[in-house]
Specification:
By secondary structure, this protein is of the alpha/beta class. It has a single domain, classed as Zn-dependent exopeptidases (Aminopeptidase), CATH 3.40.630. About 45% of the residues lie in helices and about 20% in strands. It is built from 7 helices and 6 strands, in the order αβαβαββαβαβαα. A 6-stranded mixed β-sheet has the order 2-1-3-6-4-5, sandwiched between helices. Helix 2 crosses helix 7 and helix 4 runs antiparallel to helix 7. It is globular and about 45 Å long. It starts with a helix and ends with a helix.
């Protein structure tokens, strides 16, 4: 009986998801068309992910943010938080910028010996859900040595999502609308959920 209760407890545990909200405070991130700020877009999306997990998924996952307000958190502290929380998934949210006419969504993973397959799987899950449902141009799932990826890949599934270009007038306009923020947050949350339901 005790063994059965222990098994039920293990299988009943919620997965821990850390949403890394890029930039913040004096670090605005990219500044785009109509002075749209990357730090504000990513915080809006992250808060909506929390809300949607509550109302649509009945708090199926334990979701934490690396920042809940307009504050600057160091990159090392972001990865330390994920490690302290024993995160199963770490998703870093950002927006892209370019001096050329660029558009679309891309997802980055770290080319590491640890957790690379599951990170690619998570990246593809979020990427496909977002580009198919929302119509973002597909820029692909790519490798990068970003610090926030490098410092979290060793202990959990880790990706960085670039949610369109704030320097593109169409995508900047898209990211300024609350209804689109909700749609983007939902696509990312569904991508995470799909990954967790079919974890390798």
């Amino acid at each position: 009986m005790i063994l059965m209760l222990q098994i039920c407890f293990v299988f009943g545990q919620k997965k821990v998801v850390v949403i890394d909200v890029g930039h913040g405070g004096k670090d605005t991130g990219a500044i785009g068309v109509n002075t749209i700020l990357e730090k504000e877009v990513v915080l809006n999306v992250a808060k909506e992910i929390i809300r949607l997990n509550k109302i649509l998924f009945d708090n199926k996952h334990n979701i934490y943010l690396t920042r809940y307000t307009d504050t600057l958190i160091s990159l090392s502290d972001r990865s330390r938080l994920a490690k302290a929380l024993k995160a199963d998934v770490f998703v870093s949210l950002h927006c892209n910028a370019s001096q050329t006419v660029s558009k679309g969504m891309e997802v980055y993973v770290h080319n590491s010996d640890r957790n690379i397959k599951v990170s690619i799987f998570l990246g593809v899950s979020i990427f496909n859900e977002s580009t198919r449902k929302l119509g973002f141009k597909k820029r692909g799932v790519k490798f990068a040595n970003f610090q926030v990826l490098r410092e979290t890949i060793n202990f959990c599934t880790t990706v960085l999502v670039e949610m369109g270009f704030v320097t593109n007038s169409d995508e900047a306009s898209y990211l300024l609308k609350p209804s689109n923020i909700k749609a983007l947050a939902l696509s990312i949350l569904i991508g995470i959920n799909n990954y967790l339901n079919t974890e390798l």
